[in-house]
Structure formats: C-alpha cells, structure tokens
Amino acid sequence: MNTHPINVAVLAGGPDAEREVSLISGREIAAALNATGRYAARLEVIDRLTGSELAAIEGDVIFPALHGPWGEGGPLQRLLETDGRPFVGCGSTAAEISMDKMRTKEISESIGVATPPACILHTLDDACTVQPPLVLKPIDDGSSVDVLICRTSDELKRGRAKLHPRRSRIMAERFIPGRELTVGLVGDRVGSLIEIIPSVEFYDYEAKYTRDDTRYTVSPDLPAEHAAQIKDEALRLYRAIGCRDLARIDFRYDDVTDPARPAWWMLEVNTMPGFTSHSLVPMGEAAGGVPMPELCARLVEMALARREAGSSPPLGRS
C-alpha cells in the first residue's frame, strides 16, 4: 500500500494579463487543499516555465491556477503533458480550442448551440462584417481585458484604433442585450446557473475582481425549461470541445428577444476559471453544498484518477 503523502504544487502567476488574478486564485486553492487535511499544497509562483524548471518543482500532482493564453490556452498544458505527472484541468487541445473564441463558436454552432455572429479582424484594413452595436474583444484573453462595447461606427473606429496596435487578432461580435448568465461544470456535473448583475453597464475587470457592488444570484428566476436547456447546452459544448475536470461557460440571456431568435446565446468557455472571493464556480459549488476545500480536493482526485487509469505515471516525484 502506497503511504506516500500526496503533495500538490499549485502553479500561479504566469506571463499573461491576468497574472494578479492567478496569484489570488493560487493562494486560495493552496489554502483550501491544506484545509482538507488530505493534501500538502504549496504555492509555486512562476513566469514562463521550461521543462527542466517544471521538473524541479516538487509535487505529486500539479494544479495550474493560471488564467490567460499561455497559462490556460494550451502552452502550459503541453508542457505539463510532457512532464507526465497528473495535473488538474483540460488537456492542451481542449485548452487551446477554448481560449480561441472563434474556434469555440464554430464548435458551438456545429452542435446547435446559438452564439452571436462574429468576425475576426487582423488589421485596420479588414472589413468588419458585424454592424454596431457590437463587442470588440481579443480572440484569446479573458477577464474582460481589452473588451470594448461599440454602439456606433465612430466608437468602432476608435476601438479598433486602440486595440489593433497591441493585438494581432481581435473579434467583433454582435452585442446581445439582456441578462448575464454563467454556469460551472465540475467533472461531468453541471452546477447552478448564476446571474451576474453589475452596478455598472459592463461586467469589466473591476466589476469582476475589485468592486464589491456587483450582485450575483444563484439559480436566478428563469423559465424552468430555459434553465434546463442552458445547462444541457453547456454540458454538450463542454463535451464537444473535450473539456475535463472543470470549466465555466458564459451566456447572454435576451428575455425580450424576437420569438424568431434564440433567447440565449453562448459567449465563451473558460477552462480554468478563477478561485477568488468573487469567482463564480466556487460560488455555484458552495450553493450546491460543496465548499471550497472539497471542490479543490475533488479536482485533485480527478487528476489522480487518470493516473490510476494508467494515463499518468505513479506518484513519487515529490
């Protein structure tokens, strides 16, 4: 019987714009795992890692708590796959697809999950086929970094002049009015729907992480059949992309929509959502009776189960 203690290396930081959020998530995850008494978790603050640097980090299991293109969008996951130790979260292919908002939309449309029309813009010379009002956003970033709502052609022109110099690809997506909904998935279980009600017009970075006046409603008042269908679509998309362990999928619910149009639209998939005091997956899980320590422990157990199934080497790297 293997009595080797299970040590978890929680990776946080990284080179992406969401580094500060990642550091908070990492601290919260490490504290939660240590609170279970079943794991010895240690926070490892990183930038970009090489394979040898990763190998030098002690831990039987890796819990990467990074948000953004490098840490969440495939590069770190490919490195973790070559390392061989079990790690929490999606594999590199699903991570890369989910970070690319247009690829996510293509899969969403292919399985019949409605998503707002959008186009990719590489330079100022590219024609925008989506008319205002629209949302300009990076194709591969999160936490509403560099997201702009453009209600007029002049606002679109100014928004593009701001974003193109620092982004190789941006996406123009039809603006959908209505309510902001999200749903977390842990394993293959869909959590509670959560409605996000910011005090400002747009659920931006500050509303997500620093303001205390954003309101959240778990299991909001929706027609029961709509709530069930949104959850079903979230699970179908999660599976179609090949996600595992956890994700959060965001929707816009247009309850004043034309009957000929969908009442809700999928916006994006996050494969390593936040674990801060404002974060939505822990909030939804807690509402369902799963506190943060147990949530983090379950995620580590999912990674360990892949080792037991033979897809990761035995423990003993710590």
Describe the structure.
By secondary structure, the chain is an alpha+beta fold. It folds into 3 domains: 7-89 and 289-308, Rossmann fold (3-Layer(aba) Sandwich), CATH 3.40.50; 97-115 and 177-287, ATP-grasp fold, B domain (D-amino Acid Aminotransferase, Chain A, domain 1), CATH 3.30.470; 118-174, Dna Ligase, domain 1. Helices cover 36% and strands 22% of the residues. It has helices at residues 19-36, 51-55, 69-72, 75-83, 92-99, 101-110, 153-163, 205-209, 224-241, 280-287, 292-308; strands spanning 7-13, 40-46, 61-64, 118-121, 134-138, 148-150, 170-174, 179-186, 189-197, 215-218, 246-253, 264-270. Strands 10-9-8-11-12 form a 5-stranded antiparallel β-sheet. It has a 4-stranded antiparallel β-sheet with strand order 4-7-5-6, covered by helices on one side. Helix 1 (19-36) packs across helix 11 (292-308). The protein starts with 6 loop residues before the first strand and ends in a 10-residue tail after the last helix.
Topology:
Layout lengths: L6 E7 L5 H18 L3 E7 L4 H5 L5 E4 L4 H4 L2 H9 L8 H8 L1 H10 L7 E4 L12 E5 L9 E3 L2 H11 L6 E5 L4 E8 L2 E9 L7 H5 L5 E4 L5 H18 L4 E8 L10 E7 L9 H8 L4 H17 L10
Parallel strand pairs: 1-2, 1-3
Antiparallel strand pairs: 4-7, 5-6, 5-7, 8-9, 8-11, 9-10, 11-12
Helix pairs in contact: 1-11
Summarize the structure.
The protein has 318 residues and is α+β, with helices and mostly antiparallel strands. 36% of the residues lie in helices and 22% in strands.
